[in-house]
Structures are given as structure tokens and as C-alpha cells.
Amino acid sequence: MAPHDLRRPFKRRPxxxxxxxxxxxxxxxxQHRSDAQQRARNLASSVISLQSPSSPDVDPETLPEPxxxxxxxxxxxxxSNFDIRQASSLRGPEARKWFASQxxxxxxxxxxxxxxxxxxxxLARPAGKRCFVxxxxxxxxxxxxxxxxLHHFPSALPGGxxxxxxxxxxQSYSILDCIFHEADxxxxxxxxxxxxxxxxxxxxxxxxxFWLQSKLDETGACDPPSFYHKFRFSVVPFYNCxxxxxxxxxxxxxxxxxxxxxFYNKHAxxxxxxxxxxxxxxxxxxSQYVIDTDNNxxxxxxxxxxxxxxxxxxxxxxxxxxxxxxxxNADFIKxxxxxxxxxxxxxxxxxxxxxxxxxxxxxxxxxxxxxxxARAFADSYSKIMFQYMARHSPLKAEDLASVISQENQQDKLxxxxxxx
Amino acid sequence: KQLMAMEITQFLLAAQSADARVRxxxxxxxxxxxxxxxxQFLLSLSFELANNEKPSESRRLAGILLxxxxxxxxxxxxxxxxxxxxxxxxxLKSQIKELLLRTIGSxxxxxxxxxxxxxAKVASIEVPQKQWPELVGxxxxxxxxPESPAHLKQSTLETLGYVCEEISHHDLVQDEVNSVLTxxxxxxxxxxxNAEVRLAATKALLNALDFSQTNxxxxxxxxYIMKMVCETAxxxxxxxxxxxxxxxVSIASTYYEVLEQxxxxxxxxxxxxxxxxxxxxxxxxxxxxSTICDEEIDRQEYDSPDTGDSSPPHSGFIEKALPHLxxxxxxxxxxxxxxxxxxxxxxxxxxxxxxxxxLVARTVGDGIVPLVMPFVEVNIRKPNWRSREAATYAFGSxxxxxxxxxxxxxxxxxxEFLLTATKDENNHVRDTTxxxxxxxxxxxxxxxxxxxxISPQNLPRIVGVLLESMKDVPNVAEKVCGxxxxxxxxxxxxxxxxxxxSPYLTEIIQHLLAAAERTDGPESKLRSASYETLNEVxxxxxxxxxxxIIGQLLPVIMVKLGQTMDLQVVSTEDREKQAELQASLCGVxxxxxxxxxxxxxxKPIIMQNADQIMMLFLRVFGCHSSSVHxxxxxAIGALAYATGAEFAKYMPELxxxxxxxxxxxxxxxxCSITVGVIGDICRALDDKILPFCDQIxxxxxxxxxxxxxxxxxxxxxxxxxxxxxxxxxxxxxxxxATALQIMQGAAQVCAQMDTLDEELMDxxxxxxxxxxxxYSGILQGFKDAKAELMVPYAQHLxxxxxxxxxxxxxxESVTKAAVAAMGDLADVVGEKIKPLFSNFTFCGExxxxxxDSEDEDLKDTARWTQGMIARLMVT
Lengths: 420, 875
Fold this sequence. Notes:
The complex is a heterodimer of chains A (420) and B (875). Chain A is 28% helix and 27% strand. The termini of chain A are far apart. Chain A contains nine helices and 17 strands. With 420 residues, chain A is α+β, with helices and mostly antiparallel strands. In chain A, strands 3, 4, 5, 6, 7, 8 and 9 form a seven-stranded mixed β-sheet that branches. Chain A has a five-stranded mixed β-sheet with strand order 1-12-11-2-10, with helices on both faces. Chain A has a five-stranded antiparallel β-sheet with strand order 15-14-13-16-17. The longest helix of chain A has 28 residues. With 875 residues, chain B is mainly α. In chain B, 72% of the residues lie in helices and 0% in strands. Chain B contains 41 helices and two strands. Chain B has a two-stranded antiparallel ribbon. In chain B, helix 7 runs parallel beside helix 9. The interface between A and B is large, with 51 and 85 residues. Chain A: GO terms for molecular function: RNA binding.
């Protein structure tokens, strides 16, 4: 018979710190597990709006009867807004993937689009970090393209600060596409995605820019910083892309340092990811960063590009569909320790690039290394080509101006002929 | 056979020889005999044990070998032994049992005692299988035969006691229970039996009490048993009185409900024992009241106010006895031993009395205060240290239980006195004072709920006093660590108050590090206490204000951990000491990593040091070849979370230790932690975990299939399946058949669990939740590529959800996991299983229940699932 143990804990804590650490670890793990799974669910729910307060209360008794009012596609845009707010709590690779896929990304201008002067806006891109600014629930968060938080701050944007009476209803939130300009600590707004809970995804750039002009100012977001408004916001001036508009954007004096010109197609909706309906163009005059530099800020002798390795050994651009640049043989892949999905850095050799109809005929690539992990994506076709042209035969400002003037003449020509 | 028996005597003696060579050789021969012919071996041992002409040394070893052939601590080995025994020829087994029963009548006490133990081991195997029906009868006849000698009765009672301990009351029929109980209680009869018999009977009763449910329900039988126990509690012999009080302690917890009519007698008995009996008896008497407190506290905690049941949760014995009980306990407090604070294994009447007083306070709350405070006030300034210590201990004991309103004024008035008393000339008084301060901070310092005895005004004085006392003798310093621990804890998440401790952090940390370095205490208690307190201080600090300080602490701890590798390790003891120190330091690192990585602003500090930290952990693993170091593993999980994908570079080195950890069944905590860390790594690496998955999955599956692994590790393994699947997505395809088969098997087990066993239900809930988590992870992982792989399992999953939905005892967390998995199924597999959802009509009802829940999380999940199913139905 084991003797009955009488002893009770005396002047002791009943739980050891180690036990506490174990339990905290378990709690953390279980929290992260449920976060990870919840995240997957939030991303999954992008086709229907589930959290919207107006979502009709479904009588569960009637399930699994059809519920047409729940799944109408009209909710689509609202749902993606909701996701961005939710996604603000994402971390790491998920966040990177997410935010990278949520911003509208310009292609590089490698040839001049048709009807530039009629269908396009032009604006001078401020130099700085591109980010999403989300204001909701009394706070404002800016996130870079890689998902990391740039600032977490109070702002005069709707719902952007814990200040009564100003922000409007608690549910309202706004999302702006901005560039943060370090020198004057200002967020330059280049696009508006969502305003006071109202989605602008499905609106044309024309409407969004108009809305942006008229709404931002009335919030006080453009005022100088104050206690409840840590950073100033400012609308980037945009112009119709005619001779004078182009001239103003290109040469005009602006409060910020320029980094190229952005061209927006007036009819384009806010399209997440790369789009040919927004274009970026640069030259030495309007940008310090025309030709890519290496890690030390030096322009390398050869153009460097980053491509993604596919399962079949093809190396491709980030475009969708991807453009095949070349193919690596299996031995080389093995020797270099590459695996499918690796981002690989190459230099373009003297053989150069040769393209026909958006496909590479020939590409003289020299392997450098696996790209560092900070990168989420390979280079796009347009970027590679723009950089290549910038080194060999750049598209000049004069070329843009002459296209515009030709368009103007073409517009007038019929009249001339008629009058003849 | 005779020859054999002759020979085994020599071997048994030789196996105890002082000459190692002789010993080893004899042990080898015995082992060989055992392996070659187990039945004859056991029979020979039984003959040896039964033979009064054999030397007592060989008989003793024969008994030990018999026991070891029937029972083992390790459950796998035990199972094997049971199988071997069952396979032995019945006649031969009867012969062995006959010999054993004969031996309990031996004139040699030691042989009787050993035989009683062996009989109980055989009984533990055979009685549940109804293989030894004559055992109880045979033992009882020893008691009823008029010619039975006293020593046979004594051994028989001892045997009955052991047998009762080994078997469950379901194994006997009520008639047998009655007969056993009658025999035992008659054995306690003072007039009829000598002291040895009565002692054996009283001890046997202790084991038979669990069997006596039916008898305790019958008032006549119950009162007879109680009468005998109470009489025995007044026996002439202290050992018998002690045994009787042990019975009363057991009765207090097993039969609390029927004690009312005996309480007056029991109070008188125990009060007398506490006052005047020998300490061993008095301790049991105090334990009786502590046990009554345990019962009443338990019932109070279970009594939820919303049941609408207005009857009190218990009989309120403590409340009723209070005016007499409290003075009785206070009186014990002044019977301290000189060195009780230095020794770990001391347990005396003042400690028991003080502990009981604390339990009484928790039982009755405010009522105790007016009964204790006069004692405190009279004694706390007396010149005799015993009085001062007793007063302080009494004060500290009643701080848990009474309301803050009641305590706050007293504590506020006494705080300054206590702070001064940390300088008392007497070590015990200082020890108890520091402990009392730690209790004050534990129960009366909760700024986040709006109350604290600590204000910005008195905080500087409090911190100053505590830091000064950290330099006191080790036992006092250890209690001061406790005080700082609770002080820091109060400020955790305390809003604006959480800044109050920030200015003192540097100094507090310095003092804790200094205390950890001290070598003047016994073993390493002060060191552990210092590091544990350091952990709490870091954990509870206001990160924005403390990040610099914690950032400086990090390299200090890393250097210390590095130094442990250079410790000279010669003996096993050295190795243990090294491991213990490494455990403390890895613990601190874990806490620092977790704290700093909780905010984006401070995470870079961890990132910059991650390589060196990881190298240290790997070196810690390298120090201990037999197992992986648990604390290092725990810390690695935190590091993986902090570093994210960067963690991939550590995997080649780390992987073998993960494998070792997964295979450590004996220290199942290590295995469990390793499983958790693999989950952390999956979330950090995503599909970069893929190259390791074949080996990980194969080990996890082996673990699930093993009976040797502690069951508590199994739910985490299922959750880990989900983690892996979510990380590697479509690549999980190769494991899906095996994993799902085991998940379905486990779901089956859940369905058949005994719902009355609370502990088992707890396990069942964990298991069910983890199976759903595995489903969710796998489904989500397959979403983009391999969704069709889950079509064959959809029906089973929905059946499992349905089963769970019908279980009213299910835990909320199980409900949530079930609803989520159902939504994942609809979302991921979609169209192909649409008809299934139409067939499972429980869905609507289940979702409706979830949508009505108070739990916002559950409601959100249910709404999401509802949407997913609705979308499926309309498309």
C-alpha cells in the first residue's frame, strides 16, 4: 500500500513557469493555426459578401434550399474590399502575395498606345514607396507592396482616427492607392479604390479621379499634420494627355521629386495586378531611376533581369500568361541547386534580346545567382524590354510628343479632306 | 524438481554476492532459466518463497523476482508479462497460487509480507478475468477459522488490502464485497485482536473503502463502519490511530455527502488529535479538514449560478465549524520547526495547519477575517519570533478567498509594516513576510480590473524593499522572486498602468540575474526562481518602453547559454545540472523571442540574432545525445514563428533532432512539443517544408499507431496533419489515403467513448477538434489543385460532423472546428458533393444552433459556412 501522501504545496505557486510556457506555446500555436486556416477562408470568401451588415439573415431551417439573394455577383466588389481590410492583419508570404496581387501595377511603356491624347491621363509619379492606405475603425495603416506595414497612424481620412464626430459611421472604411514621399512626409494619392465603404473597383479611372479630387479635400486629409492627423495627403495633379498636359506633367514644377510619368486609360476599371491600361515611362529628365541599379546603387554594365524557373526548365517573366525567355537544361538546374519556383537573376549578354510579337526570339542570358528572398516576383516582359530599350534605343519624350501631334493631325485630317 | 529448487537457492544467494563477478554470473543464470522455462522458473521461485527452511535472503529475492515477472511500470512490458502468465499451464499456476497462499501463514514475517504482495499481483491479472474465484473465499476462511493464528490473520488482512488496491470493485460481486468488509471491520475489533491484526485491518479498510459504496448508502452499515473507525482512531497504538485517521481522510473525500450525522464526533476526535496527539496522527487530523475544504471548494466552483438551483452546493461543514476550527488551526501555527524553510521534504503540523487555514479562507471567504485578525494583531509584534511568524503566516493565508473590499483596508494598513518586516532579525519571519507580500501582489494587485494596493506613490518604496531583500538568504530571496513575479504580472495588459514598472525594469533584471548567479543556496532553487521571475517580468513588460532593455538582455542570456557548453561534465549529475541550467536559459530566450517578435518594430532584433540563437539551440541539443532538450525545442518553435521563411536554412541541421523528438515516447512531453514545433515550422516555411515531409509524416503516422505513446500526444499530431497539408498544398496528395484512414479510425474511437468519464471526455473533445483541424488543413491545401481528391471522404466527414452535432456535451471549440471543416468542404470540393449536402438535413439545425451562440467567433464561422453552403446550392 503506497503511504498516503499528505504534503500539500507550501508557500508555492501551483503552476510551474515551464508549464506556463508550454501552455502559452500551445495557445500561440493553436491561435496561429486557426489564424492560418481563417486566412485561407477569408481569401476563399472573395466571391460573396458574408460580413456585410446588410447580408440577409438566412433562415438555417431552409438550408440547403437555394439562397439566391446571398450569392448574387453584385456583391463581388464589396467582398474584395472587405478582404483588403481583413488582409491588413496578414503576415509574411501570405501578406506579400496578397498585397502584391491587390495593387494595380503599371506595365512599362515600350510602345505608345493608340489614342493617347483622347483616352489617357498623364501624371508625374512621385518618387517614393507605393502603398495601400487603409483607414478603418479609428486607425490608418499603410502597407507596402510586399505587405509590410509602413505606418500605423491616425489620419483625417474617414474612420482614420479615434475621434468622434468626424469619421462617419463605424463601418465605413477607405482605401487609397498612394506613394509615400519621404522628403516632405506626404502621402501622394494616385488612385482611390474605396471611399467610405463605397467601392470604386468597378468605376472608370475618369470617375475615380474625379471622385478623388472632390472627396479627399473635404475630409481635411490634405491639411498639414496635427495630433489626429499624422501625415499630410495630397492629390497628384493629372492631365489629359494632350500636348500641354504632357508638357505640364513632364516639365512642370511640382512639390515632389518625380519618378517618371504614369499614363492611365480613362475607361479602365481598377484592375488588380499588372495591366496594360496603366503605363509607366521614364527618362533621365523626369526620373533618377531610369536604368536599374544593383544593390550598391551602381548601374551594372549589363542589364540584370530576374526570371522565374518553371517545372519544365523554362524561365519566364511574371506576366500572366508568362512569357518564356529561355530554357535551362536539367543538369544546370541541378548543379545550381535551383528548384521550380526559384527566382533567378541573369545578365543580358552582348547577344542581346530579340523580340517578335511579344515573344522572345533570342535572349543571350548569363546566369548570376538565385535572387534574394525579398523579391516576390520575376520581372515583367514590359519591364525587361523597357530597360533593354533604355540601354539601346530609348522611347524618348519627343517620340511621345510627336505621336500626340500626329494624332491631333489625324483628328483634323478628315475635316480638311471634307472641305476640299 | 528438488534439485532444481536446491540450485535456485544458490543462484539467488549468489546474485546478492558482494563479488561483482559472482553476482553477474548468477544473474545471467537466473535470466537464462527464466527465458528458457518461465513456468518452472516461477514455480521454483514459489517453492523457494514458501520454504521456511530456506535462508531469508534467497526467499526475499525469490519474491522480488516473482513480482517482477507479473508486473512492470512500463505498460508495454506489463502487457507482455500478463500474456506470459496467462499462457502458463493452469495446473502449474494453481500450484504456484497454492504455494503463495500457504506462505502467508508462514512464521517468518518477511516471507508472509512478500507473499501477500505477490498474491495481489496475481489477483490483479486473474480476478478481473474470473480466473481465481476461490481467492477471496480462501482468504476469508483464514479469518473465520477459530484456530487461525494471529499472524495468519494479520497477513490475510494485509493481503486483502493489497488485493483491493489492485482490482476494481466491479471485479467482485456485492456478496464478496460484504464479506471482505465484514472480515476487515471485525479485524479492527479491539477486544478480539492484537495490535498487528488491528493495524493490518485498518490499513486494509483504507483500500476497501472505494469498494464500499453500497455499504455506505445503507445507514446501519455505514454507521457501524464509522463507529469502528472512530473507535480505532482512539486506539492505544499511535500507528493504528494514524491509520484510522487516514481512513477518515479518505471517507471525507469519498463519502462527503453522508457525513452530516458524524460531524460533531469527527470534530471532537480531530480537535483532540490536533491538540494533543503525536504529530503523525495530528497531521492526518488536519488533513481531514483540508480534505473537507477541498470538497466544498470543488462543489462551490462547480455550482454555476445560472442553473437556477437554489439549494446550497454543499453541507457547509467548514462554515458551521468555523468558530472552533479557526482557533484550533491558529494554535498549530506556533509549532514551527527551526529549519522548515530550508528543507523540501519537511511537513509538520504548523505547515499543515497554515495550509488548512488558507483552504478554510477559500471555502468561507469574508467570514474568516474577524476570526484571524485579532490573532494577527496580538502576535505580530511579539518578541518571540514564533509568534511573529505565525501572525504573518495567518495573515498571508487568508488573502485568497475573502473579497477585496474586506481585505483592502487591512492590507493597506499592514503593507508598510510588512515592508519593514523584511528586515526582521529572524529568517523565518522574513521568509514568511516575503511570501505574504507575494500573496498580496497576487490577489490585491490587479490594475487591469481597477484595483491595486500599489500606487505610483508607494511603488518606489516597494520595489526598493524587494530589490534589497533579493540579497537576503536564499530561501528569502526565492520568496522575493515570487513577489516580483506577481508584481509584474499585475501590470500585464494593464493599459496605462502597464508603464508604471518600466522605469525599474533595468534594476529588477540586474538583481534577478545576480540572484541567478548565487551559489549559496541549496541546489538551484533560487536560480530557477530568478529565471522564472525574469520570464514573467519580460512577458508582462510594456514592449514599446522595454524593447531596448529586453534587446540588451538577449545577448546576456545568449552568452550565458554559450557558457553552459563549456561546463565540465563528468558525472550524470553534472549532465543533469547542465541540462537544468540550459532549460532555464532556453526558457528565458523563448520568452524574449516571443515578446520581441510580437511587434513589427521589435522583430528585427530577433531576426538579427536568429543565426546565433539557433546555433546555441543546436549546441544544446548536441550536449544531450539520448533525447532532445525540451526547453530548447519549445524555444525553437517561437524562433520559427519569428523568422518565418528564413527558418528554412536551419532545417538541414535541425531535422535530426526533430526526428529524435518525435520518437521520444517515454518523455511524451518532448514528443508533444516537437509535434507543435513542426506545426510552427510548417507555418513559417510553407512549401519549403516539403523535402522533410515524407519522414515527418511517416513518424507521425507511426506515433498515431503506437499504443506506447501517451494518448495526449495524439490530438496534436492530427492538428499537425492539417498544418502540413496547409503548408504543402497539393503535395499532400501522397499522404491523403493513409492520413484519412487514420482520421476516420480515430473518429470511430471518439464515437464509442465512455461519456461518463470526465477525463476521457476531455480527451475526446481534443481528439475531435484536432481531427476537424486536420480536415480543414487538408481541404484548404487542396483547394486550388487537388480538390477532387477529397470527394471520396466527404460523406464520412459530414457523418462525423453530424455525430458531433448530436452530442450535447461537446466543447465549444469542437463545435467551431466542426462547422469550419464543413464550410471548407463546401468551399473546396463544391459542386461534386452538392447532393450530399442536400441529404444531410442536420446541417441547417446545427448551423442555426451555432448562429444563436454567444461566441462571436463561432457565429462568424457559422455565417461563413452557411454562405459557402448557400453558394454551392445556387450554382
